[in-house]
Design goal:
Blueprint: E1 2-7, H1 12-15, E2 43-46, H2 50-59, E3 65-67, H3 84-87, H4 91-98, H5 111-131, E4 136-141, H6 143-153, E5 170-174, H7 177-181, E6 189-192
Parallel strand pairs: 1-4, 2-3, 2-4
Antiparallel strand pairs: 1-5, 5-6
Length: about 190
């Protein structure tokens, strides 16, 4: 099976470098990269957030979207909607930075809880795709969601931040049928789009 993981196009909050997790803001107008205009897929799976659904409609017009709530972005709690400059004097933010981003967001989600949720959602959707004998699918989701998935199933075990993708970027993944069916879930090949 071939799977494409795509990070949604930019929103106003992304342009202002804000923590945008649970905020359901629309896309900001932008051109579609040429390499993204030629994508084809049997199935489109999306986060429920407007920015992902709009990106999927642009890339795969008229195609039915399967919404997976577990693939939504992290809840940034008290940091939601703010950027680094607005948070720089906040001792809770400095503590979170000093922890290497491992502490839970105050009033929000923990890093481990977020990653676990994303991976479970991805596994659930992959099980459904495999059951339906789907040979290729696109997931239009969030940067943190992509990093969580790739960190978990990367055969080279590269760390979470290795998999950062800018808005509108993503990865093409090849998954051997026997890997998913046998329960030894891993990706055979990962390439940047």
């Amino acid at each position: 099976m071939e799977v494409i993981l795509i990070r949604h196009f930019k929103t106003k909050g992304n342009l202002e470098k804000r923590y945008i997790g649970r905020t359901d803001e629309p896309l900001d107008r932008m051109a579609i990269p040429q390499r993204m205009q030629e994508l084809k897929t049997e199935r489109v799976i999306v986060s429920p957030m407007k920015r992902c659904r709009q990106t999927a409609e642009i890339l795969f017009p008229g195609q039915t979207q399967t919404v997976c709530d577990s693939l939504r972005e992290c809840d940034f709690g008290e940091f939601e909607g703010k950027n680094y400059l607005e948070l720089s004097a906040n001792p809770l933010y400095q503590g979170w930075i000093d922890s290497g981003g491992t502490m839970p967001f105050p009033g929000g989600e923990s890093h481990d809880g977020f990653r676990k949720r994303c991976v479970q959602g991805f596994e659930h959707m992959m099980d459904q795709l495999e059951k339906d004998a789907c040979k290729n699918a696109a997931f239009v989701v969030h940067g943190g969601t992509i990093m969580s998935i790739l960190e978990t199933f990367d055969p080279e075990h590269r760390e979470f931040y290795h998999w950062q993708a800018a808005n509108g970027e993503g990865f093409r993944i090849k998954i051997p049928d026997e890997a998913w069916k046998s329960g030894r879930k891993y990706f055979a090949e990962i390439e940047k789009l």
